[in-house]
Amino acid sequence: MKRRKILTLSSGTLIALPACSSKKGDEGSKVGKHGASSSRFGNQPVRLGANTQYRPPAYVNKGLRNPNMNLPTQFSGKSVTHSRGLSNQPYVAMTFDDGPHPKNTPRLLDILRTRNIKATFYVIGSNVDRYPHIVRRIVAEGHEIGNHTYTHRKLTALSNSELRSEMRRTEDAIVRAAAVKPRTMRPPYGALLQRQRSLVFSDFTYPTIMWSVDPNDWKRPGPSVVRSRILRGAHNGAIILAHDLHAPTIDAMPGTFDDLLSKGYQFITVSQLLALKGQA
Ligand code: NI
To answer: Which residues pair with 95 in a beta bridge?
Structure first.
C-alpha cells in the first residue's frame, strides 16, 4: 500500500504527495537518490556554475507612460455638440476615425499599449462587420468606441430615416462585435446639420463629437508634419482628430505621443473628457 501525505494549502485545498517523501525508514537501508546526494554534499550548499544563458526579459518601453486614468466615463448634460473638454486640466483625447483597418489599427494598438494610452476610435460600421476581432481587441485594451456611420456618407443629404439607419446599423455591428454600445458619434467630414445633431442626441443619446486639433493627416503630409501640427495645436482639453487607416499617421504616433507626454499632457477618452466637463 502506498502511503500518501496530505497537505493543506492556505486556500484550503488538499493535495496528496507521493509516498517517497512521507516517512523515515520507509526505504530501509537502501540509499535512494535523495540520500545519495545528501551524503555526497553533506550540509554544504550546492555550488552551481554561472548561468551564462540567462537574459533578463526585454524592457519594452523605457520612455514615458501615460498614468492610469481611472476617471468616470458616465456623462450627462444637454450639449449636443462638443469640440473640446475643460481647459483647466492637462487632459487630451486622441481620436482615430474610419477604422478598423486590418494592419494599421493593430499597429496603432501596440503603440498605444506600450505607453498605457487610451484612445477613442470612431469606427465605420461596414469595417466593424469586416474586422470584428479588431474591434474586440480595441475594447479589450481599454479604449472607447464611437459611432462613425455605416457607409461613411455625407449625412447632411440624408433623410431622417436614412440617418437613423446609419446610426442603428453601426451600433448593432459594434454590439455584435464587442458587446459594448457606443456613447458618442462623429459625423463623416464633420458634416451634420443642427437638427440632425438634435435627432441623434434624442434618439441615440449620442452627443456629436467634433475636434479642436486637426493635423489634416488624411491629406498625407508625411509623419513629421502630422506630428508637429498636433504638437503645435495641442492644448488642455484638446480633442485631437486623426485617422487609423493611413499608415503615415500611424508612423507619426510614437513621436507624437512621446512629445505630448513629455509636455505633461495626459490621455483620456472622449467620455472621460465629457464626464469631467459635466462636473464643472
Ligand atoms: Ni471619417
So the answer is: 120, 241
Which class for 237: exposed (0-12), middle (13-18), buried (19 or more C-beta within 10 A)?
A: buried
The 3-state DSSP class for residue 243 equals strand
Class of domain 83-279: alpha beta
For ligand 1, the distance from its centroid to the CA atom of residue 260, given in whole angstroms, is 24
Q: What is the structure's pLDDT at 51?
A: 73
DSSP secondary structure code for residue 102 in this structure: T
Which of 82, 101, 143, 243 is an active site residue? 243
Q: Residue 83 has what pLDDT?
A: 98
The C-alpha atoms of residue 242 and residue 82 are separated, in whole angstroms, by 17
C-alpha cell at 62: 523605457
- On whether the CB atoms of residues 99 and 127 are closer than 8 A, the answer is yes
Mean pLDDT across the stretch 91-104? 98
Determine the pLDDT at residue 9.
46
Q: Do 212 and 239 form a contact (C-beta atoms < 8 A)?
A: yes
Residues near ion ligand 1 (CB < 5 Å) are 97-98, 188
pLDDT at 152 over 70: yes
| CATH 3.20.20.370 domain span(s) along the chain | 83-279
Cα–ligand 1 centroid distance for 141 (angstroms): 22
Q: Is 235 a catalytic residue?
A: no
Q: Is 243 a catalytic residue?
A: yes
244 near 43, Cβ under 8 Å? no
